[in-house]
Specification:
The protein is about 80% helix and about 0% strand. The radius of gyration is 16 Å and the shape is globular. The protein starts with a helix and ends with a helix.
Length: about 110
Amino acid sequence: MTTKDLEAVFEEQVQRCRKVLLQKGKEYTPDEADRFSSFKTAAVLQHTSQENALLGMLSKHIVSLYDMSFVGTDHYDMAVWDEKITDALNYLFILAAILKEEKSSET
């Protein structure tokens, strides 16, 4: 794969992440009052931080990717891989945003 090919894969992935992140945002926080409300609620229910709650949710996607890779990469359509990879990346983007929000509220 050339650098140009990798850049194209990256751009496609970022676009997929953006589309899903915005779509899920409307689904999980329709009033847009607090984009992280589901993570805060999960944290309360689990008696943990919202970062830990998010990482617990992320682990489901990571385990799924492991399971898929052990079965064999050719066993799943690329659309399934794209969905799992996109979800995992979006959880990491959300984690970065949660950390940024917490750091800004501390100051």
